[in-house]
Design goal:
By secondary structure, the protein is of the alpha+beta class. A hairpin with a 4-residue loop joins strand 9 and strand 10. It is elongated, with a radius of gyration of 23 Å.
Length: about 200
């Protein structure tokens, strides 16, 4: 009785097909995982907006940039910002956003706040109201919040990454800026209340 065995070439073809199918499945799983993580962070951002929305002072949605490079505030103080090297982008967490390669200046009345949050993405540092954030090549939701016990919390994507005692809440007056190189910014929000 004759038995037929696989030839070496046939075995290589089968192994190659299995390797190709495995790589397709792994790549698809990574995309689904990244999408699920983003949706979780988007849910956290929506929760913060809902919980602190009553104390919203200013919100720059970054979806309207006119020829004079003016960023409009949809919050109750109507604090606009002006800058250069700003372009409008799409495919952002809140519909439209800006790509920044420079600085935007905001003129504030005297205000006291406990929380500032925004979406950021890119390959550089983001300087906002004197605070520094490191952007990655994926959308992240950044928050700084000061509790009633004067603890300042740095929160990225819903996880506390740093906490330290401070002597007061955020107090701003006059001119403050947003700076960054090759970064994307969306939906900056300032609240009177704390996340904690």
């Amino acid at each position: 009785m004759k038995t037929k065995a696989f030839t070496f070439i046939e075995l290589l073809i089968v192994v190659s097909i299995i390797a190709i199918l495995s790589s397709i499945l792994v790549h698809g799983a990574k995309e689904r995982r990244a999408d699920a993580e983003f949706k979780k962070v988007l849910g956290y951002a929506t929760e913060i907006k809902g919980r602190l929305g009553h104390s919203l002072i200013a919100e720059w949605k970054m979806d309207v940039v006119d020829n004079n490079k003016v960023i409009y505030d949809s919050g109750r103080l109507s604090i606009t910002g002006t800058g250069s090297n700003i372009t409008t982008e799409t495919n952002c967490p809140e519909n439209k956003c800006i790509q920044l390669n420079g600085e935007i200046e905001f003129n504030f009345p005297k205000i006291k706040v406990k929380t500032i949050c925004f979406w950021g993405k890119g390959s550089g540092e983001i300087e906002l109201m004197g605070m520094s954030f490191t952007a990655q090549d994926k959308w992240q939701f950044f928050c700084e919040s000061i509790s009633e016990e004067y603890m300042q919390y740095s929160i990225v994507d819903g996880d506390v990454v740093k906490s330290e005692p401070v002597s007061s809440i955020f107090e701003w007056e006059n001119q403050y800026s947003l700076e960054g190189t090759n970064v994307y910014i969306d939906d900056i929000m300032i609240f009177e209340d704390s996340i904690f």
